[in-house]
Design brief:
The structure holds 2 protein chains of 2 kinds. A 4-stranded antiparallel β-sheet of chain A has the order 1-2-3-4. Helix content of chain A is about 60%, strand content about 15%. Chain A is α+β, with helices and mostly antiparallel strands. Chain A folds into 2 domains: about 220 residues, MetI-like fold, CATH 1.10.3720; about 90 residues, no CATH class. Chain A has 15 helices and 4 strands. Chain B folds into 2 domains: about 100 residues, no CATH class; about 180 residues, MetI-like (MetI-like fold). Chain B is about 75% helix and about 0% strand. Chain B is an all-alpha fold. Chain B is built from 17 helices and no strands. Classes of the chains: A alpha+beta, B mainly alpha. At the A-B interface, helix 7, helix 8, helix 12, helix 14 and helix 15 of A face helix 1, helix 7, helix 8, helix 14 and helix 15 of B.
Chain lengths: ~375, ~325
Amino acid sequence: MSAPTVEAAVPLVTAAEEKVAAATQLQLTWWRFRKHKLALASGVVIILFYLGALLADFLAVTNPHTTEAARSYIPPQAIHWFDEDGSFKPHVYALKGRRDMRTFKLVYAPDPADKRYLTLFAEGYSYTLLGVFETNRHLLGLDRDKPEDALFLLGTDQLGRDLWSRLMLATRTSLTIGLIGVTLSLFLGVLLGGLSGLYGGVVDTVIQRVIEILRSIPTIPLWMGLAAALPNTWSVTEVYIAITVIISLIGWTELARVVRGRFLALREEDFVTAAELAGASRLRIIFRHMVPSFLSHIIAAISLALPAMIISETTLSFLGLGLRPPAISWGVLLQDAQNIQALGIAPWLLIVAVPVIIVILAFNFLGDGLRDAADPYG
Amino acid sequence: MVTYILQRLALAFLTVWAISVVSFVIIQLPPGDFVDTYITNLSASGSAVRAEEAQALRQQYGLDQPIWVQYWKWIVRVVRGDFGMSMEWGRPVIEVIGDRLWLTIVISIAAIIVTWGIALPIGIYSAVRQYSIADYIFTFVGFVGLAVPNFLLALIIMYFGFKLFDLNIGGLFSAEYQLAPWSWGKVWDLLKHLPLPAFILALAGTAQLIRIMRANLLDELRRPYVTTARARGLAEWRVITKYPVRAALNPFASTIGYLLPFVVSGSIVVSLVLSLPTVGPLLLRSLIAQDMFLAGTIVLLLGVLTVIGTFISDLILMWIDPRIRAGMHG
């Protein structure tokens, strides 16, 4: 752009315009993204969820694997925030075991006369925080005097395990499986989409047909078939990796489509031709010139692919073909809520649906905002 | 036009072949071969199999030959309509599947019709009244539909149906028709049970379609011909429905190719929650019991039917979009 006469140009360009003209692409994208309030809020929600996943054990109250048949299906305990004298002392009523004379079963019911006060940074089961620090401190706990007292914020499941603590660990599993799956898909997508867009011709046709074929097969029966073949003897970690691979083997197509589309569009751009004429190597053109200009598109595509991954894992585990107990994931937890009988006795098992819906919704809003912001010149 | 049909047909065949390979792999995946499973099952029920009998069985199914020969033998039998025996049921696979396959198709088609029925009017409304409160509400509801996995939606609706109305939502037939042979009464009973599962399946797909419809229509509404029509004094609803909606419909029709696999997938899981007599519960059970011929056949048939459905939708698309007929794109 050649500037016209200086006198004419100066009053026309305001400070704000100048700021826009001088901004980097990243800044422009950020400014555009900032305007999309819902996407911004969703981004914050997702960051909080991942923080929670990072500190899952710290947020958990009791050991999520400890079973106690007698404490089966205890409803969520309500937190009472104030004491009788009006002072702020959060507490729950202690659970008192009572023998049901008809069934001879031990039944637990809250006893309003017996209060248990909540404390911060209470001692509980030992774990390794962030994989480094050995500790037994948890965010919340009871100021306990008896070992059998326990805090069940969201109630317990059939085996008497604390749903809140299990939910914390499930969030970690489900959110990370999405991340790892997307990383794998991204690798496949960028590689195959890039090849397709860069070389065109036969390579492009073959890859495009493969994508079309993969997209026209109903995925769930396919996943079910593949997941069911995982040997029963495999450890939790092995199954986790295998499930991630199975999900991402089919999930890469959308990412490949985005990458290919961008490559095709950019190939014709003047700055790529200029770089070529200047003698830049192919790799340099791709990574120095092309990738930065469509990075934002890839990030948007990723944030839309992640919720799909999470739903896939949840669905498979829900069917009993994905992660299996003792692994804890959203799908594994929802499996307990599968039939109407269980839901009739313990409706709180359905609470697990809430974080699932929030996270997936947030990812979708975030992806939508990112997609709009990915091309900030429009 | 002929080139286009041939192209789609070739792709359809390629897809069917890919699906058949995957189904065969699924059948082969569990450790041990099918005769091993057969022998284990028989000895569990008390009868022993002699070694030479096992050998004869292996030869009959070509299990002693390389894998591609086995695939070839299997696919030849499948093309002839022989899908093998179900281990668990002791009957031919095709008999075990029976009506379930058709019911899966009926539910999927119903779900697609409902998807269109919801997405079309809402898409038009959202575009015409862009940024109105209703536009925001529909967009939000659409997003929720997109975000809630449909098995979860089924669970939640089932729970509230049970809790609030004391209804046991589930199944596709009333008790008296469950085992009855087909009759008009049974068809009517099916139609009465169909809306709920169709709606649950449909909700997941509507969000995307609403957005596509809205975006397309917004583009069309900005075109000069719309202004011309208005300037000529055409009634507003005629202005909108006569040309812009039609033009915006084309990409709408093409999404059916992606919608169908999606809906078929969803029907498997939703059927499990709502205990619908489709192939869904059967597939899960056969996979858990390692009844591999049954499982493989279900995966194969679902895949093939989806491909046929997509191919038909391509033909419909060609019928409504003259540009594809003329070979301009597609």
